[in-house]
């Protein structure tokens, strides 16, 4: 089995790397917090590296799960990981990265003999723990896709090949834009409903057996917003980032799309008011005018 290196031991990276270890891959961890990587490695029976140079020497395939594509690029190029990897190595970026940035990074890594595929995920922490993430795979080389799949299937149960390099990251952002737009539409409807005297719980019940039904009505509002729980496990900053990526992609494609633009403004306003660490479902409170 190929030696796997995993970068980013956060809320998602922790269970994803645990599932790689469970699948039997020789695994080395690296994180900006070396102690966190060392402790998690001890928990799951993996190794950890204190430096990117040491880490690169221990890996054939690197998996990154980092906050942004910019950080992925910094780790690979500025941080020296690409220089530490042997020719023939491969990067699998599972972060929610900018798709245009991913396409720009691909040739730079190819010059160093490093293959690159993008493979962002959908499913959040519960499905990361269960190993049932949905994975969107973008690649310019079918051989790299086939090489990546056994690694990806240790963390997910469905891999969709989306097309060329960057299309996985584009699909992740566009999916989350649609989810964010649906949430915003339900929120607006309930704000109006409440001010007209409708019971929001009844309104959501009706939507869930009518044509207004969507993921947000069935799950987020019913289970987290109307209960006051606000604990879906998906941070506001992460969703706002993905919506921003979708809006930037639309601009880069020369498309003026009002729903993308307005959804981006809504979520950025909630982010400015509440901060990025709060659960994304709490955006409803900001839009209602509550703290």
TrEMBL record:
Gene Ontology MF terms in the entry: NAD binding; NADP binding; oxidoreductase activity, acting on the CH-OH group of donors, NAD or NADP as acceptor
Active-site feature positions: 172
Occurrences of domain 6-phosphogluconate dehydrogenase NADP-binding (ranges): 3-163
Gene3D superfamilies from the UniProt entry: N-(1-d-carboxylethyl)-l-norvaline Dehydrogenase, domain 2, NAD(P)-binding Rossmann-like Domain
Superkingdom of this protein's organism: Bacteria
3-hydroxyisobutyrate dehydrogenase-like NAD-binding domain sequence ranges: 166-286
Assigned keywords, A-Z: NAD, Oxidoreductase
Record protein name field: NAD(P)-dependent oxidoreductase
Species of origin: Aquibium carbonis
């Amino acid at each position: 089995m190929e030696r796997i290196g995993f970068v980013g031991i956060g809320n998602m990276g922790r269970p994803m790397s645990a599932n790689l270890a469970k699948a039997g891959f020789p695994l080395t961890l690296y994180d900006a917090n070396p102690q966190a990587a060392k402790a998690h490695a001890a928990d799951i029976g993996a190794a950890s590296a204190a430096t990117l140079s040491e880490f690169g020497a221990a890996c054939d395939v690197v998996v990154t799960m980092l906050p942004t594509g910019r950080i992925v690029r910094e780790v690979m190029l500025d941080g020296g990981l690409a220089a530490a990897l042997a020719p023939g190595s491969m990067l699998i970026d599972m972060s929610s990265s900018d798709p245009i940035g991913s396409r720009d990074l691909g040739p730079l890594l190819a010059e160093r003999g490093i293959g690159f595929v993008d493979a962002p995920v959908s499913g959040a922490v519960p499905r990361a723990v269960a190993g049932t993430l949905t994975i969107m795979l973008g690649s310019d080389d079918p051989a790299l896709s086939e090489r990546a799949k056994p690694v990806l299937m240790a963390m997910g149960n469905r891999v969709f090949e989306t097309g060329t390099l960057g299309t996985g990251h584009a699909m992740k952002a566009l999916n989350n834009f649609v989810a964010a737009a649906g949430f915003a539409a339900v929120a607006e409807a309930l704000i109006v409903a409440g001010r007209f005297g409708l019971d929001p719980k009844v309104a959501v019940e009706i939507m869930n057996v009518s044509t207004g039904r969507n993921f947000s009505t069935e799950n987020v509002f019913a289970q987290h917003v109307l209960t006051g729980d606000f604990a879906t496990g998906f941070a506001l900053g992460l969703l706002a980032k993905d919506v921003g990526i979708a809006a930037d992609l639309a601009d880069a494609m020369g498309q003026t799309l009002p729903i993308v633009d307005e959804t981006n403004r809504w979520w950025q306003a909630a982010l400015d008011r509440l901060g990025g660490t709060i659960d994304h479902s709490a955006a409803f409170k900001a839009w209602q005018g509550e703290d």
